[in-house]
Amino acid sequence: MENRLKLNKNLAQMFKGGVIMDVVNAKEAEIAEEAGAIAVMALERVPSDIRRDGGVARMSDPKMIKEILAAVSIPVMAKVRIGHIVEAQVIQALGVDFIDESEVLTPADEMYHIEKRQFDIPFVCGAKNLGEALRRIAEGASMMRTKGEAGTGNVVEAVRHMRTINSEMRKLQSAPKEELMTYAKEMMAPFDLVEYVAEHGKLPVVNFAAGGIATPADAALMMQLGCDGVFVGSGIFKSDNPAKRAKAIVKAVTFHNDPKVIAEVSEGLGEAMPGIEISKVETEFAKRGW
Amino acid sequence: MLKVGVLALQGSVSEHIDMLNRIENVCPVEVKTSEQINEVDALILPGGESTTIGKLLVDFSLHDLLKKRIINGMPVWGTCAGMILLAKKLLPEAHTHLEVMDICVKRNAYGSQACSFETAAFIPSISPKPISLAFIRAPYIESVGKQVEILCTVDNNIVAARENNMLATSFHPEVTDDESVHRYFVRMIEQL
């Protein structure tokens, strides 16, 4: 199992500097691949539609996932509900490359997340802070992402989560060794991972931005804050010109330190997805899971 | 000091840089622009997503320059996605990228992530000890041209090969703890 976990973390390393795009059918998956996505996330409805429709959001129809697997050569990810062991087993059986145990879907278990080391394929999970990230990594997540607030087109929560994680990591790095156990207790995180962060100043897995990224500048902002790459959900296929915006975000992530490139790719993209003020959000997805 | 670049458009860039930092007389640099392509003595094309890197090469007008430098003899090493970028032919039939190395590469040859694996192999020209090989949704080389030297096979599939100034590996030495292949590449640069 050690070996599988390492190979799974390695796949996430290959995603660095790239953009993972939400798609709801094979056609969108092809557009995403053509735009330069490093992977696609198959789901039934993008987060902004899940917000609008309400009800219980579940794993996608296996038929749709199979069609997406057949349509593209890049890795395919799919979402399962928090704690839904069987949805994860089904996704693995379909030959998907990566599972997102996601707060965007309605949680199946409010107490326990999936024991991810039981699976051959990797998981990515969301976090609002360092303690949450280290708990998911201890359960076997091979990759992390900020939770942000998906489906809002508002980057403020993703920024908050990334800044929180960064500042907590800096605190551990400058703490004397005898204080680390107390930090581990306070942030409810396994001691060995707290020690790892104190020593290396980073998570032991790749960490992407997610939740509310809608523009090339949003994506570049998250990269400048230290994310390894970016997930874009509703931001692409809920905008005026998905193919053009998708390409622009891919370029902005690679050249996130070059404002001239960001300016150039941001030109004439048409309307971004309609955004929501966080105080007006009825269901905060980020509060799901612990 | 040898200036060894790592193409930094997407993928396992920092891993290669870290490995190169362990080697004496090597100055590793991230490469994103045409000026940087012109400045380096050699270039590594890292692991990542070949379709993404291939598109960015074209979009940022790096493709033709890079191809010209490789044809003119700049040492280059492609790992996984990088090997796909170098290949003259791809299977299943797909858009090719730099088309400089006389190899036919099968993409995702082993299948999805569940089929990714780690093994060890003894490659005499690279290291006197067996080295650990990580295959991540890896391609392999289906066939090679006359000028291509096969360096390693795993289960009868070609996973490492060299053609003059070009080195290609299906696996990712940059995610292991062993810098033997990086040292081999540096020796190759010095000898060319």
Sequence-ordered SSE layout with sheet pairings:
The complex is a heterodimer of chains A (290) and B (192).
Chain A lengths: L1 H13 L4 E5 L2 H10 L3 E4 L4 H7 L8 H10 L4 E6 L3 H9 L4 E5 L20 E5 L2 H9 L4 E4 L9 H19 L5 H7 L4 H10 L5 E3 L7 H9 L5 E3 L1 H4 L4 H13 L4 H8 L24
Parallel strand pairs in A: 1-2, 1-8, 2-3, 3-4, 4-5, 5-6, 6-7
Helix pairs in contact in A: 2-4, 2-12, 7-9, 8-9, 10-12, 12-13
Chain B lengths: L1 E6 L5 H9 L4 E6 L2 H6 L2 E4 L4 H10 L3 H9 L4 E4 L1 H6 E5 L9 E6 L10 E5 L9 E5 L4 E5 L4 E6 L2 E7 L2 E4 L10 H12 L1
Report a brief summary of the structure.
The complex is a heterodimer of chains A (290) and B (192). By secondary structure, chain A is α/β, with parallel strands linked by helices.
Mean pLDDT of chain A: 96
Determine the N-to-C terminus distance of chain A: 25 Å
The total strand number of chain B stands at 12
Major sheet description of chain B? 7 strands, mixed
Say what the CATH topology of chain B is: Rossmann fold
- Gyration radius of chain A, rounded: 18 Å
Walk me through this protein's architecture.
The complex is a heterodimer of chains A (290) and B (192). Chain A is an alpha/beta fold. Chain A is 44% helix and 12% strand. In chain A, helix 5 (85-93) links the parallel strand 3 (76-81) and strand 4. Chain A starts with a helix and ends in a 24-residue tail after the last helix. Chain B has one domain (2-191): Class I glutamine amidotransferase (GATase) domain (Rossmann fold, 3-Layer(aba) Sandwich), CATH 3.40.50. Chain B has helices at residues 13-21, 34-39, 50-59, 63-71, 81-86, 180-191; strands at 2-7, 26-31, 42-45, 76-79, 87-91, 101-106, 117-121, 131-135, 140-144, 149-154, 157-163, 166-169. In chain B, the strands form 3 sheets. A 7-stranded mixed sheet of chain B has the order 2-1-3-4-12-11-10. In chain B, helix 1 links the parallel strand 1 and strand 2. The mean pLDDT of chain B is 97. The A-B interface holds A 3, 6-8, 10-11, 13-18, 33, 36-39, 73-75, 92, 95-98, 120-122, 247, 250-251, 254-255 and B 8-15, 32, 47-49, 51-52, 55-56, 59-60, 80-81, 94, 107-108, 111-114, 116-118, 134, 136-137, 172, 175.
